Amino acid sequence: MITRSNLAEQLREYQNRSKHDWASVSFFTSTANPISRADGVIYVVWELIILAFLVFSAVSLYFRYMRLAFILICITMMLLVCMKITKQVRLARRRKGRMLLPLSM
To answer: Both ends of the chain: CA-CA distance in Å?
Structure first.
């Protein structure tokens, strides 16, 4: 039988399970929103790609390839925007899933 205390306990367990702050190493993600491990891995991969583009643009600036450096910096900015958009989409999807919990009792 479903009681109020059982629902409260299930909700508490769900909140504890979804609260993984292990990806606090991530520079571009906010630590205010708990993220899952899969999301953390995705953000770390995004950050490594962005870091690689920044390093390549610095190297191309060193060798005075201005056009290449400008193109790499533009690609990096586009990747930052894409990462921000995907983060917002994932958070919205997660919020929508949380609203479907059976809390009406």
So the answer is: 13
Q: What would the two tokens of residue 3 be?
A: 């009681």
Q: What is the pLDDT of residues 63-93, one digit of tens each?
A: 999 999 999 999 999 999 998 898 888 888 8
Q: Single out the residue of 70, 83, 94 nearest to residue 27, CA to CA.
A: 83
CB 72 within 8 A of CB 60: yes
Closest CA to 41 of 55, 53, 29, 56: 29
Question: 30 to each of 25, 44, 49, 84, how far by Cα in Å?
Answer: 10, 13, 19, 11
